[in-house]
Amino acid sequence: MLPIIRVPEILAKGMESFRKVFCRAEGFEHICRFITGLILSPNKTLQGIYALQVWEGEAPSRRAMHEAVFESGWDGAAFIQQHRGEVAQAYQGRGRQVISLDWTLAHHERGPKIYAVTKSYDYVERRTTLFQTVVTAVVSNREWVDGLEVVVQDPKDLKAEAAYLKATAKQSYEQRAEARERLLELLLLTHPSATVPQTDGDCGGNRRPVGSRRPVPAGPLCF
């Protein structure tokens, strides 16, 4: 793996609109380099990403990158809201779209103390294991797919949420307004601050599911 000497131009351009979310220029630089590492580095840990970084002049410490990414208190809700606004604009007038929710199990065999990790039965792997339940929301058309939200579910709320979804699920949603209301309901259950971008068109195409997941009572919701 080659060293990371700077943030790639395409990523730097894409991050320009998020600059206002971060107070300090140095912290924003760390965030951009960290995201670069998440994409390019074979080792996705902060230690592995930092080890690939090369700076001009005196290099900041690994602790400085850790603080900028995990401790500086930048507004995650504002970040994702800005992202959704840009995604909504990019999809306008581009034909058919579908918004999908997905429950994926993120395994952490050696991390029992990581937030929201629980020991339970994985129905795909067919064994008891340690994992987080990660809920993702994405929008896609025939050309690409973009994320809208990712939430790690608190295991304390999982049983109550599953019971509610099972009790209120339908086989289909014929009315667009009804489908949109259902999607909002599902997003707000997993993340109270979630919002849904406005999209146009009907549903089209299917995205192959990836990873292990819990049985989901409601399928993709189309707009």
For the CA atoms, what is the radius of gyration?
A: 19 Å
Q: Main beta sheet: strand number and arrangement?
A: 5 strands, antiparallel
Q: Can you count the beta strands?
A: 5
- What percent strand? 15-25%
Number of helices: 7
Give the helix/strand class: alpha+beta
Number of domains: 2
What does this structure look like?
With 223 residues, the chain is of the alpha+beta class. The protein folds into two domains: 9-74, no CATH class; 77-222, no CATH class. Helices cover 38% and strands 17% of the residues. It has seven helices and five strands, in the order αααααββββααβ. Strands 1, 2, 3, 4 and 5 form a five-stranded antiparallel sheet that branches. It is globular, with a radius of gyration of 19 Å. The termini are far apart.
Summary of the model, kept short:
With 223 residues, the chain is α+β, with helices and mostly antiparallel strands. It has seven helices and five strands. A hairpin with a 4-residue loop joins strand 2 (118-122) and strand 3.
Reconstruct the topology from this structure.
Blueprint: H1 9-15, H2 25-40, H3 46-51, H4 62-71, H5 76-91, E1 98-107, E2 118-122, E3 127-140, E4 145-152, H6 155-168, H7 176-190, E5 221-222
Antiparallel strand pairs: 1-3, 1-5, 2-3, 3-4
Helix pairs in contact: 2-4
